[in-house]
Design goal:
42% of the residues lie in helices and 15% in strands. With 368 residues, the chain is of the alpha/beta class. The structure holds (~{Z})-2-methylbut-2-enedioic acid.
Length: 368
Protein backbone atom coordinates (compact mmCIF):
# COMPACT_ATOMS: atom_id res chain seq x y z
CA UNK A 1 0.00 0.00 0.00
CA UNK A 2 1.40 3.40 -0.97
CA UNK A 3 1.78 5.85 1.87
CA UNK A 4 3.76 9.00 1.41
CA UNK A 5 6.12 9.92 4.21
CA UNK A 6 7.62 13.36 3.72
CA UNK A 7 11.42 13.48 4.08
CA UNK A 8 12.55 14.73 7.49
CA UNK A 9 14.29 18.10 7.81
CA UNK A 10 18.06 17.82 7.92
CA UNK A 11 18.22 18.93 11.57
CA UNK A 12 16.70 15.53 12.44
CA UNK A 13 18.57 13.35 9.98
CA UNK A 14 21.94 14.78 10.90
CA UNK A 15 21.35 15.08 14.66
CA UNK A 16 23.43 13.00 17.05
CA UNK A 17 21.68 10.42 19.28
CA UNK A 18 22.14 12.77 22.26
CA UNK A 19 20.62 15.74 20.44
CA UNK A 20 17.63 13.62 19.45
CA UNK A 21 17.25 12.34 22.99
CA UNK A 22 17.27 15.94 24.30
CA UNK A 23 14.58 16.95 21.79
CA UNK A 24 12.38 14.00 22.64
CA UNK A 25 12.77 14.51 26.39
CA UNK A 26 11.95 18.22 26.06
CA UNK A 27 8.87 17.57 23.92
CA UNK A 28 7.64 14.90 26.32
CA UNK A 29 8.05 17.28 29.25
CA UNK A 30 6.14 20.04 27.42
CA UNK A 31 3.27 17.81 26.33
CA UNK A 32 2.98 16.00 29.68
CA UNK A 33 -0.17 13.89 30.09
CA UNK A 34 -1.53 15.11 26.76
CA UNK A 35 0.92 12.70 25.14
CA UNK A 36 0.94 8.90 25.42
CA UNK A 37 3.67 7.03 23.54
CA UNK A 38 3.01 3.38 22.74
CA UNK A 39 5.96 1.08 22.01
CA UNK A 40 5.34 -2.24 20.28
CA UNK A 41 7.55 -5.13 21.44
CA UNK A 42 9.36 -5.18 18.09
CA UNK A 43 10.59 -1.58 18.30
CA UNK A 44 14.24 -0.71 18.55
CA UNK A 45 15.63 0.45 21.91
CA UNK A 46 16.27 4.05 20.84
CA UNK A 47 12.48 4.34 20.46
CA UNK A 48 11.33 1.95 23.17
CA UNK A 49 13.10 3.90 25.91
CA UNK A 50 10.56 6.71 25.43
CA UNK A 51 7.46 4.52 25.47
CA UNK A 52 4.90 5.10 28.23
CA UNK A 53 3.62 1.57 27.64
CA UNK A 54 5.02 -1.50 25.92
CA UNK A 55 2.96 -4.31 24.54
CA UNK A 56 1.42 -6.13 21.60
CA UNK A 57 -0.83 -4.39 19.14
CA UNK A 58 -4.12 -5.10 20.88
CA UNK A 59 -2.97 -4.38 24.42
CA UNK A 60 -1.48 -1.07 23.34
CA UNK A 61 -4.71 0.04 21.66
CA UNK A 62 -6.69 -0.83 24.79
CA UNK A 63 -4.18 1.09 26.92
CA UNK A 64 -4.58 4.14 24.69
CA UNK A 65 -8.33 3.97 25.28
CA UNK A 66 -7.71 3.73 29.02
CA UNK A 67 -5.78 7.03 28.89
CA UNK A 68 -8.49 9.49 27.80
CA UNK A 69 -6.41 12.39 29.18
CA UNK A 70 -3.96 11.83 26.31
CA UNK A 71 -4.94 13.92 23.31
CA UNK A 72 -2.06 12.53 21.26
CA UNK A 73 -1.35 8.83 20.97
CA UNK A 74 1.99 8.34 19.25
CA UNK A 75 2.02 4.73 18.13
CA UNK A 76 5.53 3.39 17.65
CA UNK A 77 4.43 0.37 15.70
CA UNK A 78 2.97 -0.17 12.23
CA UNK A 79 0.01 1.19 10.31
CA UNK A 80 -2.68 -1.39 11.19
CA UNK A 81 -1.86 -0.91 14.89
CA UNK A 82 -2.38 2.85 14.67
CA UNK A 83 -5.69 2.21 12.90
CA UNK A 84 -6.79 -0.13 15.70
CA UNK A 85 -5.87 2.52 18.25
CA UNK A 86 -7.93 5.11 16.35
CA UNK A 87 -10.90 2.71 16.27
CA UNK A 88 -10.76 2.04 20.00
CA UNK A 89 -9.90 5.50 21.35
CA UNK A 90 -12.18 8.48 21.95
CA UNK A 91 -13.02 11.06 19.26
CA UNK A 92 -10.90 13.70 21.01
CA UNK A 93 -7.78 11.50 20.77
CA UNK A 94 -5.54 11.75 17.73
CA UNK A 95 -3.36 8.81 16.77
CA UNK A 96 -0.04 9.51 15.08
CA UNK A 97 2.36 7.12 13.33
CA UNK A 98 5.88 8.62 13.28
CA UNK A 99 6.68 7.21 9.81
CA UNK A 100 3.83 6.64 7.36
CA UNK A 101 5.88 4.02 5.56
CA UNK A 102 5.78 1.75 8.58
CA UNK A 103 3.32 -0.75 7.16
CA UNK A 104 3.09 -4.50 7.70
CA UNK A 105 3.89 -6.66 4.68
CA UNK A 106 1.72 -9.48 6.01
CA UNK A 107 -1.28 -7.19 6.58
CA UNK A 108 -0.82 -5.88 3.03
CA UNK A 109 -1.02 -9.43 1.63
CA UNK A 110 -4.80 -9.32 2.11
CA UNK A 111 -6.46 -6.17 0.80
CA UNK A 112 -10.17 -5.46 0.78
CA UNK A 113 -10.57 -5.88 -3.00
CA UNK A 114 -8.96 -9.32 -2.96
CA UNK A 115 -11.01 -10.42 0.06
CA UNK A 116 -14.27 -9.20 -1.50
CA UNK A 117 -13.40 -11.03 -4.72
CA UNK A 118 -12.67 -14.19 -2.75
CA UNK A 119 -15.99 -13.89 -0.95
CA UNK A 120 -17.89 -13.51 -4.25
CA UNK A 121 -16.06 -16.51 -5.71
CA UNK A 122 -16.94 -18.55 -2.62
CA UNK A 123 -20.59 -17.53 -2.91
CA UNK A 124 -20.68 -19.18 -6.34
CA UNK A 125 -19.45 -22.57 -5.17
CA UNK A 126 -20.31 -23.05 -1.51
CA UNK A 127 -23.08 -22.19 0.94
CA UNK A 128 -21.78 -18.80 2.03
CA UNK A 129 -24.10 -18.82 5.06
CA UNK A 130 -21.85 -21.57 6.39
CA UNK A 131 -18.63 -19.53 6.01
CA UNK A 132 -17.33 -17.11 8.63
CA UNK A 133 -14.49 -14.69 7.89
CA UNK A 134 -11.92 -14.41 10.68
CA UNK A 135 -9.17 -11.83 10.49
CA UNK A 136 -5.98 -11.64 12.48
CA UNK A 137 -5.48 -8.39 14.37
CA UNK A 138 -2.64 -7.76 11.91
CA UNK A 139 -4.90 -6.53 9.12
CA UNK A 140 -6.20 -3.24 7.78
CA UNK A 141 -9.25 -1.64 9.39
CA UNK A 142 -11.39 -2.22 6.28
CA UNK A 143 -10.77 -5.97 6.60
CA UNK A 144 -11.80 -5.92 10.24
CA UNK A 145 -14.92 -4.07 9.11
CA UNK A 146 -15.58 -6.69 6.39
CA UNK A 147 -15.42 -9.37 9.04
CA UNK A 148 -17.72 -7.39 11.33
CA UNK A 149 -20.32 -7.00 8.57
CA UNK A 150 -20.25 -10.73 7.79
CA UNK A 151 -20.72 -12.03 11.33
CA UNK A 152 -17.05 -12.92 11.92
CA UNK A 153 -14.49 -11.80 14.47
CA UNK A 154 -10.96 -10.51 14.83
CA UNK A 155 -8.42 -12.69 16.64
CA UNK A 156 -4.98 -12.10 18.08
CA UNK A 157 -2.20 -14.66 18.28
CA UNK A 158 -3.16 -15.10 21.94
CA UNK A 159 -6.84 -15.87 21.39
CA UNK A 160 -6.91 -17.37 17.87
CA UNK A 161 -7.91 -20.77 19.23
CA UNK A 162 -10.79 -19.41 21.32
CA UNK A 163 -12.11 -17.44 18.33
CA UNK A 164 -11.86 -20.42 15.96
CA UNK A 165 -13.50 -22.71 18.54
CA UNK A 166 -16.32 -20.14 18.77
CA UNK A 167 -16.71 -20.25 15.01
CA UNK A 168 -16.48 -24.00 14.44
CA UNK A 169 -17.02 -25.89 17.70
CA UNK A 170 -19.41 -23.94 19.90
CA UNK A 171 -21.10 -26.38 22.32
CA UNK A 172 -24.48 -24.82 21.44
CA UNK A 173 -23.85 -25.63 17.79
CA UNK A 174 -21.16 -24.44 15.39
CA UNK A 175 -21.66 -21.00 13.90
CA UNK A 176 -19.98 -22.03 10.67
CA UNK A 177 -18.92 -25.06 8.68
CA UNK A 178 -15.98 -23.22 7.18
CA UNK A 179 -13.76 -20.26 7.99
CA UNK A 180 -11.96 -17.93 5.61
CA UNK A 181 -8.93 -16.97 7.71
CA UNK A 182 -6.69 -14.05 6.72
CA UNK A 183 -4.06 -12.79 6.27
CA UNK A 184 -1.64 -15.23 7.98
CA UNK A 185 -1.94 -18.81 6.80
CA UNK A 186 0.47 -20.05 9.50
CA UNK A 187 -1.49 -18.78 12.49
CA UNK A 188 -4.63 -20.32 10.97
CA UNK A 189 -2.93 -23.65 10.24
CA UNK A 190 -1.15 -23.93 13.60
CA UNK A 191 -4.38 -23.15 15.45
CA UNK A 192 -6.33 -25.65 13.33
CA UNK A 193 -3.82 -28.38 14.22
CA UNK A 194 -4.06 -27.45 17.92
CA UNK A 195 -7.83 -27.92 17.68
CA UNK A 196 -7.39 -31.43 16.27
CA UNK A 197 -7.94 -30.67 12.59
CA UNK A 198 -5.58 -32.15 10.01
CA UNK A 199 -4.08 -31.09 6.73
CA UNK A 200 -7.03 -32.70 4.96
CA UNK A 201 -9.30 -30.06 6.54
CA UNK A 202 -7.22 -27.14 5.26
CA UNK A 203 -6.66 -25.52 1.88
CA UNK A 204 -4.55 -22.49 1.03
CA UNK A 205 -6.45 -19.73 -0.79
CA UNK A 206 -4.14 -18.04 -3.28
CA UNK A 207 -5.71 -14.64 -4.04
CA UNK A 208 -3.74 -14.37 -7.29
CA UNK A 209 -5.51 -17.37 -8.81
CA UNK A 210 -9.10 -18.03 -9.89
CA UNK A 211 -11.06 -19.58 -7.04
CA UNK A 212 -7.94 -19.27 -4.91
CA UNK A 213 -6.21 -21.87 -7.10
CA UNK A 214 -8.60 -24.53 -5.76
CA UNK A 215 -11.14 -26.87 -7.33
CA UNK A 216 -14.80 -26.56 -6.35
CA UNK A 217 -14.48 -29.86 -4.48
CA UNK A 218 -11.51 -28.52 -2.52
CA UNK A 219 -13.41 -25.40 -1.52
CA UNK A 220 -16.42 -27.43 -0.36
CA UNK A 221 -14.32 -29.95 1.59
CA UNK A 222 -12.10 -27.47 3.45
CA UNK A 223 -12.97 -26.40 6.98
CA UNK A 224 -10.11 -23.88 6.92
CA UNK A 225 -9.57 -21.70 3.86
CA UNK A 226 -6.21 -20.16 4.75
CA UNK A 227 -5.23 -16.96 2.98
CA UNK A 228 -1.83 -17.23 1.33
CA UNK A 229 -0.14 -14.62 3.51
CA UNK A 230 2.82 -14.81 5.85
CA UNK A 231 5.05 -12.76 8.13
CA UNK A 232 8.43 -12.33 6.47
CA UNK A 233 10.19 -12.35 9.85
CA UNK A 234 8.58 -15.48 11.31
CA UNK A 235 8.64 -17.41 8.06
CA UNK A 236 12.44 -17.29 8.09
CA UNK A 237 12.72 -19.70 11.03
CA UNK A 238 13.41 -23.24 9.83
CA UNK A 239 13.52 -26.68 11.51
CA UNK A 240 17.30 -26.67 10.91
CA UNK A 241 17.60 -23.68 13.26
CA UNK A 242 15.95 -25.65 16.05
CA UNK A 243 18.09 -28.73 15.33
CA UNK A 244 21.27 -26.60 15.49
CA UNK A 245 20.14 -24.92 18.74
CA UNK A 246 19.34 -28.27 20.36
CA UNK A 247 22.68 -29.74 19.28
CA UNK A 248 24.49 -26.83 20.95
CA UNK A 249 22.18 -26.49 23.98
CA UNK A 250 20.70 -29.90 24.81
CA UNK A 251 19.08 -28.46 27.97
CA UNK A 252 17.83 -25.35 26.22
CA UNK A 253 14.19 -24.44 25.68
CA UNK A 254 12.72 -23.50 22.29
CA UNK A 255 9.81 -21.06 22.11
CA UNK A 256 8.39 -19.83 18.81
CA UNK A 257 5.60 -17.56 17.62
CA UNK A 258 2.58 -19.16 15.88
CA UNK A 259 3.28 -17.10 12.74
CA UNK A 260 6.16 -19.57 12.18
CA UNK A 261 5.49 -22.47 9.82
CA UNK A 262 3.93 -25.64 11.21
CA UNK A 263 7.10 -27.77 10.88
CA UNK A 264 8.90 -25.23 13.10
CA UNK A 265 6.06 -25.07 15.65
CA UNK A 266 5.99 -28.88 15.86
CA UNK A 267 9.64 -28.98 16.92
CA UNK A 268 9.36 -26.20 19.51
CA UNK A 269 8.79 -26.78 23.23
CA UNK A 270 6.29 -23.97 23.41
CA UNK A 271 4.38 -21.88 20.88
CA UNK A 272 2.67 -18.58 21.60
CA UNK A 273 2.19 -14.86 21.06
CA UNK A 274 4.69 -12.17 22.06
CA UNK A 275 2.92 -11.85 25.37
CA UNK A 276 3.09 -15.62 25.88
CA UNK A 277 6.80 -15.68 24.99
CA UNK A 278 7.55 -12.97 27.57
CA UNK A 279 5.63 -14.82 30.29
CA UNK A 280 7.08 -18.22 29.37
CA UNK A 281 10.65 -16.89 29.58
CA UNK A 282 9.89 -15.19 32.87
CA UNK A 283 8.69 -18.51 34.32
CA UNK A 284 11.90 -20.42 33.41
CA UNK A 285 14.68 -20.95 35.99
CA UNK A 286 17.45 -18.34 36.01
CA UNK A 287 20.26 -19.12 33.61
CA UNK A 288 18.16 -21.20 31.19
CA UNK A 289 19.24 -20.90 27.59
CA UNK A 290 16.22 -20.11 25.44
CA UNK A 291 16.09 -20.22 21.63
CA UNK A 292 13.33 -17.93 20.43
CA UNK A 293 11.63 -17.67 17.07
CA UNK A 294 10.34 -14.11 16.90
CA UNK A 295 11.46 -10.59 16.02
CA UNK A 296 15.02 -9.81 17.07
CA UNK A 297 14.41 -6.62 19.09
CA UNK A 298 12.11 -8.46 21.46
CA UNK A 299 14.59 -11.35 21.70
CA UNK A 300 17.48 -9.00 22.52
CA UNK A 301 15.41 -7.10 25.07
CA UNK A 302 14.44 -10.35 26.80
CA UNK A 303 18.11 -11.28 26.92
CA UNK A 304 19.07 -7.88 28.37
CA UNK A 305 16.22 -7.58 30.85
CA UNK A 306 15.84 -11.11 32.25
CA UNK A 307 18.17 -13.51 34.05
CA UNK A 308 17.90 -16.02 31.14
CA UNK A 309 20.26 -16.46 28.21
CA UNK A 310 17.86 -15.60 25.38
CA UNK A 311 18.95 -16.03 21.75
CA UNK A 312 17.41 -15.85 18.34
CA UNK A 313 17.04 -19.23 16.65
CA UNK A 314 18.01 -17.61 13.35
CA UNK A 315 21.76 -16.84 13.26
CA UNK A 316 21.23 -14.38 10.38
CA UNK A 317 18.76 -12.37 12.45
CA UNK A 318 16.07 -10.58 10.52
CA UNK A 319 14.45 -7.51 12.08
CA UNK A 320 10.96 -6.42 11.08
CA UNK A 321 12.01 -3.92 8.43
CA UNK A 322 8.79 -1.92 8.57
CA UNK A 323 8.83 -1.59 12.37
CA UNK A 324 12.46 -0.54 11.97
CA UNK A 325 11.36 2.57 10.06
CA UNK A 326 10.34 4.17 13.33
CA UNK A 327 13.52 5.65 14.71
CA UNK A 328 14.61 8.45 17.03
CA UNK A 329 14.67 11.11 14.22
CA UNK A 330 11.04 10.33 13.24
CA UNK A 331 9.93 10.28 16.87
CA UNK A 332 11.68 13.59 17.62
CA UNK A 333 10.19 15.20 14.49
CA UNK A 334 6.67 13.97 15.32
CA UNK A 335 6.86 15.23 18.90
CA UNK A 336 8.33 18.61 17.94
CA UNK A 337 5.43 19.07 15.51
CA UNK A 338 2.95 18.28 18.29
CA UNK A 339 4.61 20.87 20.52
CA UNK A 340 4.13 23.38 17.67
CA UNK A 341 0.43 22.41 17.62
CA UNK A 342 0.72 20.56 14.30
CA UNK A 343 -0.50 16.99 14.17
CA UNK A 344 1.44 15.22 11.43
CA UNK A 345 0.94 11.65 10.20
CA UNK A 346 -2.44 11.34 11.87
CA UNK A 347 -4.05 7.96 11.22
CA UNK A 348 -7.83 8.00 10.97
CA UNK A 349 -10.43 5.42 10.14
CA UNK A 350 -13.74 6.61 8.66
CA UNK A 351 -16.77 6.25 10.98
CA UNK A 352 -18.53 3.44 9.07
CA UNK A 353 -15.37 1.33 8.80
CA UNK A 354 -14.57 2.05 12.44
CA UNK A 355 -18.08 1.00 13.50
CA UNK A 356 -17.93 -2.40 11.78
CA UNK A 357 -14.33 -3.01 12.78
CA UNK A 358 -15.36 -2.33 16.38
CA UNK A 359 -18.17 -4.88 15.98
CA UNK A 360 -15.58 -7.50 14.96
CA UNK A 361 -13.25 -6.50 17.81
CA UNK A 362 -16.07 -6.54 20.36
CA UNK A 363 -17.10 -10.01 19.16
CA UNK A 364 -13.54 -11.12 19.83
CA UNK A 365 -13.70 -9.62 23.32
CA UNK A 366 -17.01 -11.28 24.09
CA UNK A 367 -15.50 -14.66 23.15
CA UNK A 368 -12.27 -14.35 25.11
O1 LIG B 1 -0.21 -8.43 17.50
C1 LIG B 1 0.98 -8.21 17.72
O2 LIG B 1 1.35 -7.28 18.39
C2 LIG B 1 1.98 -9.07 17.09
C3 LIG B 1 2.61 -8.52 15.90
C4 LIG B 1 2.27 -10.28 17.55
C5 LIG B 1 1.93 -10.80 18.87
O3 LIG B 1 2.01 -12.02 19.06
O4 LIG B 1 1.60 -10.05 19.79
Amino acid sequence: MLRLQVPLPERYTSATPDELADRIAAAKATLGDRLFILGHHYQRDEVMRWADARGDSFRLSVLAKEHPEADYIVFCGVHFMAESADILTGDHQQVVLPDLNAGCSMADMADIDAVEEAWEALEDVTDIEGVLPITYMNSAANLKAFVGRHGGAVCTSTNARAVLEWALNDPDGPRAKQVLFFPDQHLGRNTGYQMGFTEADMRVWNPRKDLGGLSEADVKEATFLLWKGHCSVHQRFRPEHIEAFRAEHPDGVVIVHPECSHDVCELADEVGSTDFIIRAIDALPAGTTVGVGTEIHLVQRLDDETDKDVRSLDPLICPCSTMFRIDAPHLAWTLDRLVEGKVTNRITVDPDTAHWARVALERMLSIT
